[in-house]
Amino acid sequence: MTGPTGPGALPEPDLVERPHGLTVERAMKASPEAVYRAWTEGFDTWFAEPGTVRMRAAVDEPFVFVTRHENRVHPHYGRFLELEPSRLVRLTWVTGAMGTGGAETVVTVELEPAPDGGTRLRLTHTGFYDRAGAERHEQAWADHVLPHLDDVLTANARG
């Protein structure tokens, strides 16, 4: 489901003035189908505060959810730009001062089946104002968020 292009379609974010980004790759134990569902239907099982997600997996649909970190509430906003079941999730990502600084960044999650039944995940996050913001997010995605997603999906598969 590629994004709409006709009249009334929302434009792509303009990243020209925000050239900083990152790429993280990870071998996930779960199948591409399970990883895709986690990004489109199950955000409150691995990322967001349970009960705070307002999300419908459709191109150009806005979403909002809340996370908590160090006793502070952090709202996240965005919309889906592209969806290809079990292959691709592309969305905008907007957070506050300690996140994207209010910039509409773009997260692209590419999924490939791995020979062991798992998934090769490649996450690209672009559109940061500065290198420091991109580096903070790279560390978070690589060291905390994606390992946590892998752990949650593995535990769910075991039942």
Automatic annotation (TrEMBL):
Coiled coil: none annotated. CDD domains: SRPBCC_CalC_Aha1-like (cd07814). Pfam families: AHSA1. InterPro entries: ASHA1/2-like_C, START-like_dom_sf. Residues 29-152 form the Activator of Hsp90 ATPase homologue 1/2-like C-terminal domain. Belongs to the AHA1 family. This is Uncharacterized protein YndB with AHSA1/START domain. It comes from Streptomyces avidinii.
